[in-house]
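Two entries, shown back to back:
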Amino acid sequence: MSSDKRLSSFGIGKVQQQQQRIVKSTSLSTSSPTISTPHSPPRSRTSRSQSYGGPEASYTPSKEAPLDLSRFVDKKAKKYKPGKGFASVFPDPEQRAALFEHLPAFPVVRLKKSPKVLNEIHGPVDVQDPQDFFAQFIWARAVSTYPFLPTKGARDGDPVVDGYLVRLLEDDAGVAVVTDGCNWGPGPLEASNIAKRAFADYMMTHLHEIQEVRDAGHYLLDAISYCHHKICEGHPTDIWSAGTTTLCGGVLLKLKPPKEISLSSPQWAFVSVSIGDCKAFHYSMASGNMIDLTAGNRKHCRDATDCGGRLGPYLREGEPDLRNVQVSYSVCQEDDLILIVTDGVHDNFDPQMLGKRVDTFGQEYVQYSSWDDLKDVDERESLKEMFMIDQLISLIENADDSELDLRKKVFAYDQDKQEHMLPTALVNRIVRHCLSITGAGREWMEQNPVAKLPSDYVKYPGKMDHATVAVLRVAPVADSLLREATVQKLSLRSSGGLSASDMSRSAPR
């Protein structure tokens, strides 16, 4: 069944369910927030998020792994110490606390003060080996879908101002962040690179202090302040010469097992923070369900050039734009996937930018001739979110025949059906999708370098941009490393390279 037919069969009831999961953003002057607990759509997973300024947050309970939140309610709220060496960008401590107070007090496995980094990838310019052992756990790419203009002798928009950094850590933990410099040029590129590194370094310094999921929210917001501080730090005489950037990043933490363990018990939590229009998604391998951890982060953007929020000097005395800061979490199980993307990716899954008419989404929308006619912002964003998630799930689960045939030829055997869902394959499919969708517009601009691309999303679908996607697979990396080492030792032994006594001495104890 086509995506359009699947969506039209959802009906308004499904849309209303999705609306409950959209974060309701308001201004900084809004009074204290309230938390709603809606009913969840089938097979949904736990996810809650909060935006700066007092919006509502949604909580979607898991039918697979029911969680008794009352067990984790604090009798007394924790008092968190402010970060050292930099000022918080949040002027109101109470509103800052409201951003993460909805996070549960699930206990996590404590990390060491300086956790060992098993593997790191960073870009946009990064030479990754798809045959590397860690490629089955983390993979990312940053590309440009802009045209190559003969009048410039270069690709439009170069250099790529997106960035990513993903670290796999011991104790099955991880840190991941994606940044997107606002506009083009050296300023946004510098801001993007500084922010991704500052975010990862700050979280690495404080991971050992996280005892429960809620603690992560505090340190993620501190990381946002630290990123802004580092962006401005290099411009003491002229702060406005610094660039700005959006950011979405988070930490993957192993949960302490409950007393009663079942196969469906959540084993990890991914806790994230976002500012701007990057997005994070959680795909459940067990249920085939996906949720947008950043739902609603673009609903109050003024126009297509407004990213909704950014780090770096932007307001008044050089403060960042905090309109749509969100803190979210989602509980995960083994083999789940975390995707973090820039708008250069998710805009190419937006039905409006793909030339899809809103009146084809069901009988209740035939009265609308354009997306702008649908004045209910919640409903409009909900429809787009459903379509986007539907398309992403299809891309995750369904490799085309040519890709599967190629893999059989390359690897000389019929791979496991899950092979195409590993980070390497998924990232490459998403990038290929973005390049394909924007192909017609890119070709037109290369043939008409001094003209403006016609505003016709049917003939020229998608949005050309810098496009970045990072994928983190939730998995017990340490166990996989041990198995890999054992396989290598057995291989050496069978080839005569390792004796039985060597095997005995090197066996894990």
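entry 2 starts here
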Amino acid sequence: KAQDGCTPQNPDNGQFLCSSNSDGILGCNLLCSAGFSPYPRSWTSCSSDNNWTLPPSTMTCSPSVLLLAGSGWQWFIDTVELFSLNLTCPSYELPNLPDWKFRHSMDYVDGNIYMCGGQQTSQVCLEMNEDNTWEETPDKLMHPRISHTSAVVGYKTVLVLV
């Protein structure tokens, strides 16, 4: 069972939501207040001997930014732009997508950004690299996804068909 050393301190603008499994491993999701996002990850775990996969003290709730990539309604758009609604950073354009994206989903999952499905590439997922370029993931979606909706539940992505 997880010991006292596995009790994380909540960061500013957030709190850890933790639960133990039957093996005594404590899993914790960092939930941030509106306008903030977990950084560098949103999930960590602590073993029964008090070892963290990522020390909670290194996890923060940073001001959120808006990442726009491709288009939901218009063909032939391959641009990626970053906006800050509270003006903590300038708005600027990032490297373009490897090809145009249309009617896809995009999610921030435990420190990683994924873009999946869409017109022309309905079974493909891309992951954003640290240099802001995109790379196709080795796994393919089981079924074509076009005009779908996705959600992040904890540290997992769930595709919701609409």
